[in-house]
Design a protein that fits this description.
With about 1000 residues, the protein is mainly alpha-helical. About 65% of the residues lie in helices and about 5% in strands. Among the domains are: about 190 residues, no CATH class; about 150 residues, no CATH class; about 90 residues, no CATH class; about 110 residues, no CATH class; about 90 residues, no CATH class. It is built from 53 helices and 9 strands. The chain has a 3-stranded antiparallel sheet with strand order 1-2-3, with helices on one face. The longest helix has 26 residues.
Length: about 1000
């Protein structure tokens, strides 16, 4: 297979299936038209197009990430091929007025009753236009009313689409309103707005889609025959986050049956306020269980029931709701309802509808509680309440929640298993599993498998495109697919809703739009804080805008500790003393003096406030101020309080007291990293190196990143004397804490602190496996070069490695940008082991930095006239062979891995189509040639590129992309850079 063919295969494997709700409608259309049983659909991606075949008959073609219009036309054409005779009038049309009235109540139970009656009539051969129009309308309303976070109710959407296009194929203009309502229900916001132009301007649905809320309100108040305008008005109110009118509507519509309460709860969910999420979920779990059992008693639905400002106080309510066998009892209720006279068709849709609500509620509960300190308790509760011995989607809900709560260490296995086995729940449920593995997954051996499964499980439904784009970028490293997903989401109106605007502005980093959106009165305080954090991220060097946004938000929320704390942390990132000053002003604002002279705070979060001030005082070295602040606090067992007590005693030289507080901290929080670091610091301060080393025994299994970012910097910061560092390293070595994963990261911390000589000495103690020896020696060389210069470092390295083994250093030299080792250290003779690899790396090094003049002719001569694969690779890197001449060659998997890496390496150094060039790195990874250096480099560099571009507007700007290229760090003067490239758009 050639590189070009591999690129086609890669894009085919990364192609996202068209919205399955439309695909599933294909067999339904055929069944409705012919009466035959449904069959399997054949869907394949070829030449950038989805080819759909049903029973050996072509259905049609679809582009990747198609629009609603394209998908609708695709189904309409198929319906025309499966022509069903629909009479303009029917013998029973006069009998359908009661059914029509049932549908216009928009009550779920009335809709199911109407659908059952219509299905019964249809099964007797009645197929009039009115009957099918009513059935389509009932299905469209049902789809619009359904809350389906985990996408298990696709059958309702597919059934509605199938009926819609069958009617349209015979009478094109008869179901325009149902078509627009379905487009909105399916999430195609932009298309729904365009379809509003086909409706009467004064219709309630047109007003809803055009966000004409005043007109819609009047229509809702005047309409007596249909309840839908009232629901449309309420949903529009919720989408606009108009809390005043939300409360007003609930007061005017206060009595609901358990079934009727569900659509308003779905509308309320659209507000997006965290205080509303959990009460909605708890109410849904109660109401849907009653509805599933057919209980129709009336209940109130007041605002007090739907806003919990303090979730902690309500957790017992949540826990009691999650009773054992909750899911099994719910399913039992659904099964019992089959005896209530509904047709099998209506029973199936009824079960799907209520199940979608139940799953959505569990989704909210699980994601909320599993982020709490009491997550373990709720994980056990959820496990007990979701036990189910049956089949279908409900058999997969418990395992999904279990995967959602998997610890970070086991996340990769849990995700792979879920993607493979949980096939009855939708793409959004799969996406929910990925955040816990965003960092670990790119380095995992399961990355390739999970990446492939990810693309298989996704489809193009609008609500998953932006979340999927986020994960496609990182951890799945596909920048082309990422950009396509975002572009399609924008095209289809994803930026029209307030929530989508928040997501898009975060993703696109559009600062002017963010500042404009910040002034939207309907945003919650937390959302405004999120916008400020985006501005801080987008414009790190200019703090003026972020500062002004904080000041405005504090004026709006003068007593909000959440806002004040964020502002103080923002100030502390640049000037801790300014943060302390602001903290003292805040304390003055929220403290009142009682008649007896006692000073009390108005805020219940006094502990958090005092601890933040104490932390800032410690970080600025104001130990006297720290002690005063700690003394003013009531004794408590919070982790930060105990830590600061220990550190304050340590700073005063009271080692005994410091140790006592540190031990108390460790007893209270035995698994806390902070507790371990405090104990370590106390021992280091007293030069108790063996006890300090013993403390780190527990951290031997800690991830490399902990040693790199926490332990290493602490050791180097607290031991200023190289002799002390040496003694501590000796203590670590005596306990076999001497691998690159731990001791090597302390060396890296020393190097980052510009203590290269010390870093070299520490690294000399590191023990490595034979296959890692040359990597370690190259790293030591880099440290020594920084400390003593290139010539001394070269002389040292020559003493370490015999001449006939020196070629082994070449890959590590290339990776770390130590190009001189390719020329001045590795032997010139290509007869030695690895010799040809060295010549290829010499040619590759010339892509970013000129090959030394005395070597240029030798490198040219080595490859001139070569006709084997390695020779052609070298000629390409030297500019003597065109990329196409390499990319069209038939190659083995190992050759494809090498060729794709070096094609990307050379092409990314030139301005041009940068994102397309990154696809070549993905081709390298698709070969699964784990043992090759080029495979490892592709993974590392693609991860670096994705991380560099994440959230950057650059990736969406063709102008900026056309300038983007790779440059050598040496050109930037960054001596600490361990990679051999950086990105530049200059």
């Amino acid at each position: 297979m050639s590189i070009d063919e591999s690129l086609q295969e890669l894009r085919s494997m990364s192609a996202i299936s068209p919205d399955r709700r439309f695909l599933n409608a294909v067999s339904l259309i055929h069944q409705l038209a012919t009466g035959n049983e449904q069959d399997v659909l054949d869907v394949q991606f070829k030449n950038k197009t989805w080819k759909v075949v049903y029973q050996n008959q072509p259905v049609g073609d679809l582009h990747e990430l198609p629009t609603f219009e394209e998908l609708h036309k695709f189904l309409l054409n198929w319906a025309s091929k499966n022509k069903k005779t629909i009479a303009k009038t029917g013998t029973i049309d006069s009998e359908l007025s009661r059914v029509k009235d049932q549908i216009e109540t928009s009550s779920p139970e009335s809709l199911f009753a109407a659908l059952s009656k219509l299905d019964e009539l249809q099964s007797r051969g009645e197929t009039s236009l009115l009957l099918l129009k009513l059935k389509t309308r009932a299905l469209a309303i049902l789809a619009w009313e359904m809350l389906d976070n985990l996408e298990i109710g696709d059958e309702i959407f597919s059934t509605a689409l199938a009926h819609l296009v069958l009617v349209e194929s015979a009478y094109p203009d008869e179901v325009s309103e149902e078509k627009a309502l379905l487009a909105d229900a399916l999430g195609y916001e932009g298309d729904a707005k365009r379809l509003a132009k086909t409706l009467r301007e004064e219709s309630a649905l047109a007003c809803y889609l055009n966000n004409q809320n005043e007109n819609l309100r009047q229509l809702a108040q005047s309409e007596t025959k249909s309840r839908l305008p009232n629901l449309l008005y309420f949903r529009s109110t919720c989408l606009n986050r108009d809390k005043s009118r939300w409360r007003e509507w609930l007061a005017e519509n206060s009595a609901f049956t358990s079934s009727n309460s569900l659509p308003p709860l779905k509308c309320t969910y659209a507000i997006g306020d965290e205080a509303i999420m959990m009460p909605i979920a708890i109410r849904i779990l109660g109401d849907v269980k009653l509805a599933s059992e057919g209980i129709t008693s009336e209940f109130s639905l007041g605002t007090g029931d739907l806003e919990w400002r303090n979730l902690a106080l309500r957790l017992p309510t949540v826990a009691s709701t999650l009773s054992p066998n909750l899911l099994a009892d719910f399913e039992k209720g659904l099964a019992a309802s089959k005896e209530k006279g509904l047709s099998d068709f209506a029973v199936r849709l009824r079960s799907a509808f209520y199940r979608a609500y139940f799953f959505s509620a569990i989704d909210i509960v699980a994601r909320t509680t599993l982020a709490l300190p009491s997550a373990k308790v709720f994980s056990e509760r959820l496990s007990a309440c979701l036990e189910y011995q049956g089949r279908g989607p409900s058999a997969q809900l418990g395992p999904w929640v279990l995967a959602l709560s998997s610890p970070h260490g086991g996340a990769d296995e849990a995700i792979e298993s879920a993607f493979l086995n949980l096939n009855r729940i939708g793409p959004s449920a799969m996406l929910a599993l990925l955040p816990q593995a965003r960092v670990s997954l790119p380095a995992s051996k399961k990355w390739s498998n999970i990446r492939e499964l990810f693309f298989v499980r996704m489809d193009s439904r609008p609500e998953v495109r932006l979340p999927a784009a986020d994960f496609v970028e990182l951890p799945f490293l596909d920048l082309i697919a990422h950009k396509a997903l975002v572009a399609s989401a924008l095209r289809d109106g994803a930026g029209d809703s307030l929530q989508s605007k928040l997501v898009l502005n975060h993703m696109l980093g559009r600062k002017p739009e963010i500042i404009k959106l910040f002034n939207n009165a309907s945003l919650t305080t937390r959302e405004k804080l999120e916008l400020i954090s985006i501005v801080r991220l987008v414009d790190k060097d200019n703090v003026k805008d972020a500062n002004q946004m904080y000041v405005k938000l504090l004026r709006e929320n003068p007593t909000s500790w959440e806002v004040e704390k964020s502002f103080i942390e923002f100030l502390a990132s640049r000037d801790k003393r300014a943060a302390i000053s602001e903290m003292r002003k805040w304390k003055a604002r929220v403290t009142i003096t009682k008649k007896d002279g006692a000073k009390v705070t108005r805020d219940a979060l006094a502990l958090d406030q005092k601890l933040l001030l104490a932390q800032l005082l410690y970080e600025t070295g104001d130990i006297a101020g720290l002690k005063i602040e700690l003394k003013s606090l009531k004794s408590n067992s919070s982790q930060n309080y105990l830590k600061l007590l220990a550190l304050s005693e340590l700073s005063s030289g009271n080692f005994g007291s410091a140790k006592a507080w540190a031990e108390e901290l460790r007893r209270s929080y035995p698994k806390s990293l902070e507790a371990m670091l405090v104990e370590l610091e106390i021992c280091l301060k007293q030069k108790q190196f063996l006890p300090a080393a013993n403390i780190l025994r527990a951290a031997v299994v800690a991830p490399r990143i902990i040693w790199k970012e926490k332990i290493g910097p602490l050791v180097i910061a607290k031991l200023s004397n190289p002799q002390d560092v040496g003694a501590f390293v000796g203590a670590l070595d005596s306990l076999q804490i001497n691998s690159d994963e731990n001791l090597g990261q302390i060396a890296a911390a020393a190097y980052s602190a510009d203590k290269a000589e010390l870093a070299f000495q520490i690294l000399s103690t590191v023990k490595t496996a034979p296959d890692a020896m040359y990597d370690m020696l190259t790293c030591q060389y880099r440290y020594l070069k920084r400390a003593q210069g290139k010539q001394k470092a070269l002389a040292w390295l020559k003493e370490q490695i015999p001449e006939d083994k020196r070629a082994a250093v070449a890959p590590f030299a290339f990776f770390s940008g130590q190009d001189e080792l390719l020329f001045e250290f590795a032997p010139a003779e290509d007869t030695l082991a690895g010799g040809e690899e060295v010549w290829i790396l010499r040619a590759a090094s010339g892509v970013l930095n000129p090959i030394p003049a005395n070597w240029q002719s030798m490198v040219n001569a080595h490859f001139d006239g070569s006709k084997d694969f390695d020779g052609k690779l070298g000629l390409y890197l030297l500019g003597k062979l065109k990329a196409q001449q390499l990319s069209t060659l038939p190659l083995t998997a190992a050759q494809r891995a090498k060729a794709s890496f070096y094609l990307a390496w050379k092409q990314m150094a030139e301005p041009g189509n940068f994102l397309a060039d990154t696809e070549l790195l993905l081709v390298c990874l698709a070969t699964n040639q784990y043992a090759l250096s080029e495979y490892q480099w592709s993974k590392v560099w693609l991860r670096d590129i994705a991380a560099s571009l994440a959230g950057q507007p650059m990736i969406y700007s063709e102008g900026a992309l056309s300038r983007l290229r790779v440059v050598s760090p040496s050109q930037q003067g960054d001596w600490s850079q361990q990679r051999r490239f950086q990105l530049s758009n200059r």
